[in-house]
Every structure is written in C-alpha cells, then in structure tokens.
Write a structure and sequence with these properties.
A hairpin with a 2-residue loop joins strand 1 and strand 2. This protein has one domain. It is 45% helix and 16% strand. The chain has four helices and two strands, in the order ααββαα. It is α+β, with helices and mostly antiparallel strands and 67 residues long. The protein is globular, with a radius of gyration of 12 Å.
Amino acid sequence: MMREHAKNGNTVFFSTHVLDVAEKLCDRVGIINKGKLVFVGTFEEMKNKFKENTSLEELFLEITENE
C-alpha cells in the first residue's frame, strides 16, 4: 500500500528503528541524531559518502558515532 501511494506521486513519511526494513522500503532516508538531521538522501548516496558495501544499520552507527 505504501508503494502504491508513492507511485501516485504522494509522499510517504515512514519512521522506524528497524533499519533493514527502511533499507528495503524507502527511496530516501533521513538520519536524526540528538535532535539534529545529520543526513538526508538515498541509500546509494549514503554509501558513496560514508562507506561502500555495508548495511543501513552499519552506516547509521558510523554516522551517529561521529556526531
């Protein structure tokens, strides 16, 4: 249902702590750490900026540890 809604041109805001689900479902991700938005973009952009060949969870930990 979320994908259909998005395909119709709508924005779907999906909040989760289950990062493997976010990795599979979301086109773009935002990382919030201590109330501050520290990254917004696609999973591919995140991998290019921080670390290739890793999971969203590992990237999240790396990004938030540096803040």
